[in-house]
Amino acid sequence: MALEYIKQINDKVHLAVWKIEEDIDFYQRNIVLSPTDVNILAETTHPEKRLEFLAGRMLCKTVLHSLKITDQPIYRNEFGKPVIPDSEYNISLSHTENYIAAAVGFKIEVGIDIEKPKAKMAKIAPRLYTDEEMEYCNADLVKYSKMWSAKEVLYKLFMKRELNFKDHLKVKPLKKDWTLMSGSINKDDFFKEYELAFYKLEEYFICLNVN
């Protein structure tokens, strides 16, 4: 199987990565889906999206069994957030064409994103970033992409609709190499701050909250 690693980040958070190498038949033979996920898969027609979805569920099965959390399949709630049934643990998933990444948190919410720098980030940045955040990026494509990834993590932590990336989600680099950032969600009567860490994986980087 293509489990790359399970890494303990701290006493609350684990990071796991799966490389997609198997075909769809492998995943269909080796995982059991929750009823909600059965419906989601049935509604997913694109072959690559079906493969990514099943690979993500395979990673969940593998990491949750390895950490002795549960052998029950996860499911999506009404906001699309993955949920571990009957557990004090939380999970978040992200995928690319080659990898699935998962963050598992004990008694804390978690969010994760896996990306690689893309030219489109420079084009959409002014719509998504404050003037101060644009100055942090300094027209650097990698920094634009990391800023996007950090805000994606914040969005997944809140995981409710009607969030504006520029107005409600703020991020700031804490280290010169951009391996650690601070982030905050400020929406109506909700405010919370997080530390967001970055980990390199070939041409990709993974961002997740560590608190």
Briefly characterize the structure.
By secondary structure, the protein is an alpha+beta fold. The protein has helices at residues 24-30, 35-43, 47-66, 120-128, 131-137, 141-158, and strands spanning 3-8, 13-19, 75-76, 82-83, 89-95, 99-106, 112-115, 169-173, 180-187, 190-201, 204-209. It has a five-stranded antiparallel sheet, with helices on one face.
What tags apply to this protein structure?
211 residues, alpha+beta, five-stranded antiparallel β-sheet, four-stranded antiparallel β-sheet, 6 helices, globular
What does this structure look like?
There is one protein chain. The chain is α+β, with helices and mostly antiparallel strands. 33% of the residues lie in helices and 32% in strands. The protein is built from six helices and eleven strands. Helix 5 (131-137) crosses helix 6. The longest helix is centred in the first third of the chain and has 20 residues, at 47-66. The relative contact order is 0.14. It catalyses: apo-[peptidyl-carrier protein] + CoA = holo-[peptidyl-carrier protein] + adenosine 3',5'-bisphosphate + H(+); apo-[aryl-carrier protein] + CoA = holo-[aryl-carrier protein] + adenosine 3',5'-bisphosphate + H(+). Keywords: Enterobactin biosynthesis, Magnesium, Metal-binding, Transferase. It holds the Pfam family 4PPT_N.
